[in-house]
Specification:
Blueprint lengths: L1 H5 L6 H6 L6 H4 L7 H4 L6 H26 L10 H14 L1 E2 H4 L10 E3 L5 E3 L7 E2 L15 E4 L8 E4 L18 H8 L13 E6 L3 H7 L4 E6 L9 H6 L19 H12 L3 H13 L6 H9 L8 H23 L16 H23 L3 E5 L2 E5 L1
Antiparallel strand pairs: 1-4, 2-3, 5-6, 7-8, 9-10
GO molecular function, one term: protein-lysine N-methyltransferase activity
Protein name: SET domain-containing protein
GO cellular component, one term: nucleus
Amino acid sequence: MKQYLLGPRSFWYPYIKTLPQPEHLSSWALPAFWPEGDVEFLEGTNAEVAVEEVRGNLRREYKAARRALREARWNGWEDYSRGLYHWAFCVFTSRGFRSSGVLPAGGGRLGLSSEDANGEGEKGEEDDDFGVLVPVLDVGNHDLRARVEWDKETEPGKVRLVTRETVGPGNQVCNNYGQKTNSELLLGYGFVIPETEEVHNDYVHLRKRAGGEDGARQGTAARDFLISLRPMGDPSSWVGRSRQRIKVEDGFEVLPALAHVEDSLVWDLVVAQAGHDQDVRQTVEKLLEESPGGGNVDYCLKRILASPTAPKLEGLVDKVKEALLAKLAFDYERILDPEVYEDGEPALVPANPNQELAMAYRRQCKKVLETVIRKLGGQLDVDAGSQSTKP
């Protein structure tokens, strides 16, 4: 924001002029800054929840930052507007790199300082908890399959983006933003990856919030688990495979009902059931006892996931499936609810690029839920344009 406000006096002025400009809202606004009419198209999805979280965080951050500038009598503090803050947030979110990824090892000190109102201050300590913008290298598009590395060692003081695969003349050199789902890409970059035969990126996030005094005391963060359109181990499930706890060998068959579910979520549900169900608890205890070395969770989880289900594990697996089905059916009803009016007419008819993007995203979210609900043995009723679920 400071460099933008300096205008031509800023060393970074030529670079800043290449960025989408603050006054052109539609060119940089991520979903958290869409008009309300566009955000309505995300209702019932993971993205809707995240948009509200981002908005709340930014309201608090901007209020605190503006107060700090005012109290410090920062030169021109009045020019640090909320709109400019939103622009800066979107630029950094969609283009920034983590400092440890692009700064040379041991050379992370950039002379960053905590300046006072007159531009004087002490240099801060080296810290990896910040982002940096890297002109030119920030133009690379995302490809989940791209094999790239950031080379910080070959030439002191320089960083290079190196691709580990052949790129022919006229072809695009892509970056890899990491194993991010479409929900994460939509929120952080403003796009989603379309489903193809070779790759899909459609997942629904199920969040488990840390609860109780123990969670609060230990600072346990909320945990997201994934439900996948295709089996987590499918070659096209790039993000799903990266999230799996169990790396199964060739020939191991996962129970179809659980194949689309992140395996850590399955274990989490088993532990939750064992906490209040004596039969489940006894089954888990026996599994742990018979595991190699005793207490081997991965061994137990693999036994639970295996197809066909061992007779002694059928009751446990059925209860996990029931818990999953109840949650997914609830989420499915939430995503269906805003789509039609009471008279059956469609309520969400896209009329601009934001709304079309949101509709493409929500269609895939529905497809994920429909696929996994059916795999779990649930039924989808379709009649006269309305849909619902039942066990």
